[in-house]
Design goal:
The protein is α/β, with parallel strands linked by helices. The chain is about 40% helix and about 20% strand. Strand 6, helix 4 and strand 7 form a beta-alpha-beta unit. Helix 18 packs across helix 19 and helix 21 packs across helix 23.
């Protein structure tokens, strides 16, 4: 990790574990944020020294108030600033001169309302005085291990492993409210705001190293530095689960460019691809963000994906089964011998079903426990889902006791439990057993746990690579390079292209065709015609001299109509390739994340079906194989419906070679290899479109 990033993480650690803190803008007025924040610190149980700062001095909430930072008896470890915007620069300068390492600016009224000028002034002062900034325009932060509640509200009531990070103050409050109601412990609560200085990637770097954090949930509107974000994902993903909700998913992030790759690459598609590449779980709503984060903080891993459902209601069991297949979970059948053993138990209601899902039709905890012990002894599943559709007296005590006896992990869906459920839920969470309110939410959450478990196992076996490649700088002007030059570049990276040559006349084309033998393909070569087929600039299956000459003349006639001002360099003559399955391989320079690669179903179907996936570069062979498996095209490539399997290994190798080419040639802005034809033992690139910066 770069030294600057380490220094930032050390500053966050100093602020979160501050032994003394200044509250600039502290107030005796309960309606002011300066009062609310100071009250949160005191009621939250912070044991360090608190220094209220108010120009009037005096006393605030029983603490001596100082008129300025310079009046303090010591240099505090951190400061929270809650004063009018125009006064903030002077305070930043004063804090920097004192040597305060970092401040959190909760004041609003900066770039979010058009005052970028004052943000720039603050940033300049902070750099000059070596002081780091969280915010501005935030509620503050909470670090529960230090009992430091440096924000307006609410006060966290339980210690635990879940860290929250959001760009919305209201979302911060809502998530903490849910956590308090559920009895879920919080390690840290971070509000990002405008991210003038310290950003989401810096906090992720800190949380990756924080022994008090076991899972992280994140709400983002955007990423400040794409490559720094990638580095943070790489650091944290092998250690602890991260769940992200990204808002702002509109199509405005798409660039208006000529290549297939860029037209298929909306900003959200690439963001999701980055998350998949590093095992980060992306959700679509706040409810899932909390559900997944809560469960992963309590149960970050499982042995496998087999789920045994034990219900007090048959209907709830069916709901769970219907959702399981959609989330990659297996519902194993119970053998006749085990089913017989279960039926031999003395149940209050003998009408229940002993198949998976098991319907006990009972509210007696001893019956649930007996079934679970037998099931675990026979290793029926990796996870037991207890579906409670009624109040189950003593359920929490039974499950806590059971969790110490069995190998399988336990999760609970408690629906219709009324006061029993409200009483048991915090108790179960404290014991590390997640509780969800419906079977569907429980199953979807289990899917996330299984997904992260698989990722962590794969991650431990992967090669480590450096993702901090230099950012590409160019003025914005770009040019398409001729296809024959693109083909030459491909050959340098052992990416095979058909036998070819450039002809400027029909006679030259005939000479080339006779050397490579018919049939041949003819393609217009012009920097002004990126999509040759659309302009009528392609002719295929030319079997003799007459076909070739007619096609040569016809292409020039069509292009003259469709692109009358285009500069024509000639015609590219290629040996026609045999039929095969067609895929597309592309690359682009994403404005946020940098060099990115794409793979999917190719030919004319690339944009029609949009069956494509993305990864950021550099690309490992494992990444390449995952990309191929994620597409619908994979079934056809691997030999579906008794078809012969195609050259998947060579295709994965091609993706890695394209990755190497893009990384080593930073002037390449966009690339389309479409189609790439895949055969049983080989692959062949039939068309190459490359955009370079001038």
């Amino acid at each position: 990790m770069p030294q600057s990033d380490i220094a930032t993480i050390q500053t966050i650690d100093k602020m979160f574990n501050a032994q003394s803190i200044a509250v600039i803008g502290a107030s005796n007025n309960p309606a002011k944020y300066g009062y609310m924040t100071l009250e949160s610190m005191i009621k939250g149980g912070y044991k360090g020294k608190i220094y209220p700062i108010n120009p009037k001095g005096g006393e605030i909430m029983g603490l001596r108030a100082y008129t300025s930072l310079k009046e303090l008896p010591e240099v505090p470890d951190a400061a929270v600033i809650m004063i009018p915007v125009d006064l903030v620069p002077d305070v930043i300068k004063e804090a920097g001169e004192m040597g305060i390492p970092g401040v959190a600016i909760t004041s609003a009224g900066f770039s979010e309302v058009g005052r970028s000028d004052i943000e720039e002034e603050i940033a300049t002062l902070a750099r000059a005085h070596n002081i780091r900034i969280i915010g501005p325009n935030i509620e503050g932060f909470i670090y529960f291990p230090n009992r430091l509640h440096a924000q307006f509200f609410p006060i966290v009531q339980h210690s635990g492993g879940l860290a929250t990070m959001t760009q919305s103050g209201s979302l911060t409050n809502g998530l903490l409210g849910w956590a308090n109601d559920d009895g879920i412990g919080i390690s840290a609560c971070i509000n990002l705001g405008n991210q003038l200085d310290i950003c989401e990637s810096d906090f992720l770097g800190f949380l990756a190293r924080d022994d008090n954090t076991s899972a992280v949930i994140v709400h983002l509107e955007g990423v400040k530095d794409g490559r720094r974000f990638i580095q943070a994902m790489d650091q944290i993903s092998g250690k602890k689960p991260v769940v992200i909700l990204k808002t702002g998913k509109s199509e405005e992030g798409k660039k208006s460019v000529a290549s297939h790759t860029a037209s298929l690459a909306g900003s959200n598609e690439i963001f999701n691809a980055v998350c998949r590449q590093f095992g980060v779980i992306v959700v679509r709503d706040v409810q899932s963000l909390f559900d997944y984060g809560k469960t992963l903080s309590l149960m970050p891993q499982t042995r496998g994906n087999r789920v045994l459902i034990i219900s007090s209601s048959g209907g709830l069991g069916v709901l769970a089964v219907d959702e399981a297949e959609l989330n990659g979970l297996s519902i194993p059948k119970i053998s006749e011998s085990v089913e017989g053993e279960l039926k031999s138990l003395d149940f209050a209601n003998p009408l229940g079903s002993m198949n998976n899902p098991i319907d006990l039709a009972t509210i007696w905890t001893d019956e649930f426990e007996k079934v679970a012990l037998i099931a675990d002894r026979h290793n029926l599943a990796d996870i037991f889902l207890f579906n409670f559709g009624d109040p189950i007296p003593g359920a929490a005590d039974m499950l806590i006791r059971l969790s110490g006896k069995i190998k399988a992990r336990i999760i609970v869906s408690y629906m219709g439990g009324e006061m029993e459920e409200k009483k048991d839920r915090p108790k179960l969470h404290k014991a590390g057993i997640p509780v969800l309110p419906t079977p569907e939410r429980a199953i979807r959450t289990l899917g996330a746990v299984v997904k992260f478990s698989k990722w962590k196992k794969r991650r431990s076996q992967r090669q480590r690579i450096n993702y901090m490649i230099p950012k590409r700088e160019y003025a914005g002007a770009s040019v398409f390079i001729p296809e024959y030059q693109a083909a030459d570049l491909l050959e340098k990276y052992n990416i095979h292209y058909p036998i070819h040559g450039l002809a400027t006349t029909c006679e030259e084309a005939v000479q080339l065709a006779e050397k490579m033998d018919y049939p041949v393909v003819l393609k217009i070569v012009s920097p002004d015609i990126p999509h040759k087929s659309d302009a009528g600039g392609v002719a295929v299956n030319l079997k003799n001299k007459n076909d070739l000459c007619r096609a040569f003349s016809a292409i020039l006639t069509r292009v003259a109509k469709t692109a009358p001002t285009a500069v024509i360099d000639g015609m590219l003559m290629c040996k026609q390739a045999e039929n095969g399955m067609e895929v597309i391989v592309g690359a682009l320079d994403d404005p946020v994340f940098g060099p990115t690669i794409m793979f999917g179903l190719g030919g004319i179907y690339a944009e029609i079906f949009g069956d494509v996936v993305f990864r950021i570069l550099p690309l490992t062979l494992d990444n390449a194989r995952e990309m191929i498996r994620e597409t619908k095209a994979y079934e056809m490539l691997s030999g579906a419906r008794n078809q012969k399997a195609l050259a998947l290994d060579k295709l994965a190798d091609l993706l890695v070679r394209v990755s190497e080419m893009i990384v080593e040639n930073p002037d390449i802005l966009e690339l389309d290899l479409n189609p790439v034809r895949v055969y049983e033992k080989s692959i062949l690139c039939l068309d190459a479109r490359i955009v370079k910066c001038k």
